[in-house]
Amino acid sequence: MTAVHSLPPRVAHGHAVTMGRPWPMGATFDGQGVNFAVFSTHATLIELCLFSPDGRKEMARIPLPERDGDIWHGHVGGLTPGTLYGFRVHGPYAPEQGHRFNPNKLLIDPYARALEGRLRWSDALMGYKIGSPRGDLSFDTRDSAFAVPKSVVVDASFNWGTDRAPRRSLADSVIYEAHVKGLTALHPGVERGQRGTFLGLSSDAVIDHLQTLGVTAIELLPVHAFMDDRFLVTKGLKNYWGYQTLGFFAPEPRYLTRGQVWEFQSMVRRFHAAGIEVILDVVYNHSGEGDEHGPTLCLRGFDNASYYRLTGGGRHYMNDAGTGNTLNLTHPMVLRLVMDSLRHWVETYHVDGFRFDLCSVLGREAHGFDPAGSFFDAVRQDPVLSKVKLIAEPWDIGPGGYQLGHYPHPFSEWNDKYRDGVRRVWRGDPGMMPDLAGRLLGSADSFDHHARPATASVNFVTSHDGFTLEDLVSFTVKRNLANGEDNRDGHSDNYSDNLGTEGPTADPLVRAGRALRKRNMLATVFLSQGTPMLLAGDELGHSQGGNNNAYAQDNEVSWINWATADRALTAFVARLSALRARHPVLRQRRFLHAEIRPSDGLPDVIWRRADGQPPGPGDWHDAGFRCLCVELRMAAEGPDAPDAIFAVLNTGPATPLTLPDTAQGWQVEINTTQPDAPVGPWPKGQNAPANSVLVFSAVGGAA
User: Fold this and answer.
1) Residue 128 and which of 184, 285, 402, 693 are 20 to 30 A apart at CA?
2) Which H helix or E strand runs over 99?
3) Cβ atoms 679, 699 nearer than 8 A
4) Catalytic residue among 263, 357, 396, 604
5) Domain range annotation of the chain
């Protein structure tokens, strides 16, 4: 069968059909009807399917009348926003050659701006016959339309009013990683009907909490439309985190109260009015279709050989993401899909940045990971995307996938070396002071090259993937049995410590030790050069019962329990954030290299022991060196400010402390052993307490 070319205007099922335009991609309402444009190189015929308002009945099949290169398109008059549709794509079914066309399977528009209905798991979703001795080489003729979410024609116009992006620099940012539902499902200040939704997330109660913490950006776990994996559904579980994308342009329907995209826009507008940016965790390394044994829902059915990286002659899929497939961003139309999606979220929804899941996949060319690869080049030159925040998760499971520090400017990166190093420091592992010194100064060993700023390091001790802060000080072993994988999933090396008792305890000494440990780790994050990131709930003492991979726990395991919130810890985090905001020396873009400052003749960083003397080589190599002190000023080569900080990080016993003589005086601003103590003088001769962080600010300038 050959493609249909240049059909004359005609009427199909009561709608005037003309050739339309090959742009924009997807479905576009123009006031007269809807233009449809989709990509496929290897298809022979593409049919547009129109559905009844409830999505249950297929009302019409209309062959797209025109092909412009590999873009198939047509205009259908009289259609309006709210129209439900899908596609059926004809072509060869030759899995050994990478082709898996099956017109019996209704397909989601890769550019669908919204989806209606949930995915209903059925064998009919498969392009092959389950149980056939030929496996995925067989061909299934069942219609899958009843089980597939329908694409929706959207009019995304929205009255943004005076909305303006906060445009905060990373140096002034405090990022808060959160889950839409997890943060709001149990929040007593959020209306019941809005809990677990975008509108609930942007409620006054949540915004007030974020402002109290000093948060400048909320980073949301995936909000692109996603699916629940079949193996989870059979266990009565859900894909809570959302890393199985179905639609790269559509907000996840379960987070909408009325199924309308304006709800997301309203959320962003409210956050912006509060001075808070919105960053999206996005998944462009794979789709939810899985490997050759997965369903035919979208990309596989449009052009499997183009959209995915294939192996074994084309039958099998590269699996650099560990989810069954890998998108082929070396193909120009797949790269265009990603770029169009990113711009869509910036231009239509006003989001302020992106965190790229398993970003090494996106930079993998035929020869391996390449920081000058097509994806990075495309983003960096883009006049829209180059202006927003770009954060990479700098690894995947593919060959050469761990690439921390190797991303090009302006990408920042999640720093797992920071995470693990700080955990080990406060666990009391020996010989960690040199590592701590590097982490405090922005991990220059990884990022101080090619004019990258210190803010390239996103510093955190916890994220959604792993123990919460409460569990980090309460469990030595992960407890993931609820995930149904016999506790095999999740990291086993957590560098955690239970301080003497595994799990929850009423022992006041253990509880006090855990509270101090949490404060010490949080203080370290806010004292470090780089961009600090908090995991939602850590400031409230949230526990997942030792589950360090709660991706399938859409329940009280993951939902933050506001009724048991640790308000004292919340207040301490707010105090740390305010400290960082007051002192520009703690949030510099330039790396510090102990260069002499012209303004006062002092180095911009001075390392000290507790007795005030500089540590020598013997100290740095001493596994028992437990108290590291550092004096920080503005970088020698940058703009100056009359600001100096002296920080003491003592992971050992109480020790005599001598304050530097490089300032007229010092006042203590933070003492993690006395989190409520007011700012004031430090008594002469007083020891640095055991297992503590002390932060002093200079009074009166240089001595």
Assistant:
1) 285
2) strand 99-100
3) no
4) 357
5) 10-152, 592-702
Burial 114-150 (b: 16+ CB within 10 A, else e): bbbbebebeebbbbbbeeeeeebebebebebbbbbbb
Out of 109, 252, 393, 471, pick the active-site residue: 393
Parts of the chain with a pLDDT under 70 = 1-11, 13, 703
Residue 357 annotated as catalytic: yes
Best CATH choice for the domain 592-702 from the list 3.40.50.300, 2.60.40.1180, 3.30.200.20, 3.40.50.150? 2.60.40.1180
From the list 61, 57, 141, 49, the residue with the least C-alpha distance to 104 is: 141
Q: Which amino acid is at 211?
A: Q
Q: Do 592-702 and 10-152 fall under one CATH topology?
A: yes
φ, ψ of residue 628 to 5 degrees: the values are -110, 130
Name every residue whose Cβ is closer than 8 Å to that of residue 465 and which is 6 or more positions away in sequence.
491, 549
Whole-structure pTM value: 0.97
User: Which among 426, 414, 514, 397 has a CA at the least distance from the CA of 463?
Assistant: 414
Say which DSSP state 347 is in: H
E strand intervals along 479-548: 531-535
Say if residues 446 and 402 touch (Cβ distance below 8 Å). no
Reference 454, options 533, 530, 528, 526; nearest CA is 530
Upper half-sphere CA count for residue 471 (Cβ side, 13 Å) = 25
Q: In the annotation, is 538 catalytic?
A: no
**CATH classification number, 10-152, choose in 3.30.200.20, 2.60.40.10, 1.20.1070.10, 3.40.30.120:** 2.60.40.10
- Burial class of residue 2 in the structure, from the number of CB atoms within 10 Å of its CB (0-12 exposed, 13-18 middle, 19+ buried): exposed
The token duo for 419 is: 């995470």
CA dist 391 and 381 (Å) reads 16
Q: What is the spatial distance between Cα 613 and Cα 604, in angstroms, rounded to a whole number? A: 16
Amino acid at 626: R
State the pLDDT at residue 14. Answer: 77
